[in-house]
Structure formats: structure tokens, C-alpha cells
User: Fold this.
Amino acid sequence: MNTRSDRDDLTAQREALTAARTRWREALVDLARTASREGAAEVADEASALARALASRAKRPPAVDGSGLAGAVSALARTSVPSDAFDEAAARARAAEQLVDQAAYDLRTASGEDG
Assistant:
């Protein structure tokens, strides 16, 4: 039987996940703008696509995978020297993605689902 605190905990975890997804989307928008200014079209496209997916207002938002973006950023780093602004935007996006992963894990744990 769920107690009131269980429901409150799940609500808090859902809110934390929503906030983390919003921060990741904002970081991706910033990365897309920075990449676009630097002519890194593939990175800009990947970041924009992820940001659009994160902006979904669906009751159960789609799972978002940042591996395509990570690959594009890695490929860019191998073929050119990105600016400090680009490196910082990419680092913020990676950190925000990690926060989403942690918030999703915390919600699964609070829901009683195994990791």
C-alpha cells in the first residue's frame, strides 16, 4: 500500500526529471547555436533534434539518446579544433544529460523498478 510520503516522493522525482530534461534542452539549444556559428552543421542538427524531442509535451516523454550527438562532437574534435565556447557548450550539454540519466534512475528506484 502506498503511503502519502511514497506519492510525494514520486511526485518530487517526476518534477526533478522534468527540470533536468528542461535544463538539458536549454543546454542543447545553446550548443546548437554555438555549433551553427562555427559551421558544425552535423552537431547543430543533432543538438536541435534532441532539443525538439526533449520539448515534447507528451504525458510520457520519449526517451532521448544523446549518443548521436556525442559521436558528432567527437568527430568534430578529431577533424578540427573547436572554440572554447563550443567546448564549454558541449560540456554543459554532457553534464545536463548525466543529470537527466540520474533523475530517471532516481524515479525508477522510487517507483520500485530495478535499475
Q: What stands out?
A: Residues 33 and 90 are 11 Å apart (CA to CA). The chain has a mean pLDDT of 86. The longest helix spans residues 4-37.
